[in-house]
Design a protein that fits this description.
Blueprint lengths: L1 E4 L7 E2 H7 L8 E3 L7 H5 L6 H13 L5 H13 L9 E5 L2 E5 L9 H19 L3 E6 L3 H10 L5 E8 L5 H8 L6 E7 L2 H13 L8 E3 L6 H17 L7 E6 L4 H11 L4 E8 L4 H8 L2 E2 L19 H8 L4 H14 L1 E2 L3 H10 E5 L2 H15 L5 H13 L7 E5 L7 H6 L23 E4 L2 H11 L7
Parallel strand pairs: 5-15, 6-7, 6-9, 7-8, 8-16, 10-11, 10-15, 11-14
Antiparallel strand pairs: 1-2, 1-3, 4-5, 12-13
The structure holds pyridoxal-5'-phosphate.
Pyridoxal-5'-phosphate binds next to helix 10.
Length: about 475
Amino acid sequence: MRYISTRGQAPALNFEDVLLAGLASDGGLYVPENLPRFTVEEIASWAGLPYHELAFRVMRPFVAGSIADADFKRILEETYGVFAHKAVAPLTQLGANEWVLELFQGPTLAFKDFALQLLGRLLDHVLTRRNERVVIMGATSGDTGSAAIEGCKACDNVDIFIMHPHNRVSEVQRRQMTTILGDNIHNIAIEGNFDDCQEMVKASFADQGFLKGTRLVAVNSINWARIMAQIVYYFHAALQLGAPHRSVAFSVPTGNFGDIFAGYLARNMGLPINQLIVATNRNDILHRFMSGNRYDKDTLHASLSPSMDIMVSSNFERLLFDLHGRNGLAVSALMDEFKATGKLSVEDDRWTEARRLFDSLAVDDEGTCATIAEVHGETGYLLDPHTAIGVKAARECRRSLALPMVILGTAHPVKFPEAVEKAGIGAAPQLPAHLADLFQRAERCTVLPNDLKAVQAFVGQHGNRGKPL
Ligand SMILES: *Cc1c(COP(=O)(O)O)cnc(C)c1O
């Protein structure tokens, strides 16, 4: 499989190089040159497969030519073997034809484990074969950091530096990162906010002199391998609910358009999905596009669902590429316009095309808490604030009551106690068994000023298993 850039000016790469690449050299994002398409008979024959075996069948075309079948099978079995629930991604029924897909049974209790557990193992496999070491730098507002560290902790060829804003992530989130100890794991608390952290990552990709030739790898959701891994659970859920012989709808709490873009790809690969609902919090740039064809940058609002607090959605460019007939120059012009003006809209027929599949809703903190309370009252089930936004959007936007509606359950409620408390239901979520002693574990973290040079000096000093590069 070859991968091309959404801006049409970068060389095509194979899977292995895309895994290590991050942004394309023309500033675009990599997408498959040709999306695989499965027949109804093929998809039907996968019913009942264990998660890792289904994952092999869905993802095999994407890694073809780079990862041998036997290696890929073993990697997938290991990856999904660390999940706490035997079903890996179990479905829980909330109401009539309404289901939560629990994507928080992995080591760090958020859906990001699905992709980052795999990414870490794929990196290890490829780097061992190449006899190469890399440095990962990532910024996190909470969930990505812990999932990336968990995914890479066993990779001998990776040194991982994760920056989080000092004192601005929840204690559970911080401890999930800082209690994983290892020579190759470095947590940096930056005296600044999340955007400061992200800016330093971007600046480091732009000028890599401080790495003395060591390659820098991205773990945010622009990395194609993350999107690829997320396609699988759409198939897994839909197969259990009667696909491919019946259509299924999904409601997806989203910020960067990563998770929902994976659903869009699943549909284009042959899975009968009749509706995809974009569920956002008050940071609603995606909702403004879907409801009114206005993709306009706004200021950032801190919300009770912090993992969706974004101003722009990095993966949206991948959808724009398809909406423009995969014309990279058209996308490039649009993104230039967006960069200059902070605004973007598309021609009417392209927007109408998007609206055939997508609906959207923005839910504020009040609506989030009300939904947590509503569902808890109906069923006793406790939602995390992100998932609650998905449930609210599903109930408001649903097109057909006859078809199953699946809400992606993106995190375990214990990660976001503030929202659960504000919902006023008197129930406090408990840490699952594998994290029961989280508050007793030793932490390791370095506090650094909001200063690029200081951060880069730190990476240079510790980037080789704790020793200088
Ligand atoms: C990252 C995250 C999201 C948003 O995912 P996108 O890929 O940006 O759409 C939603 N919920 C939780 C809990 C997350 O950690």
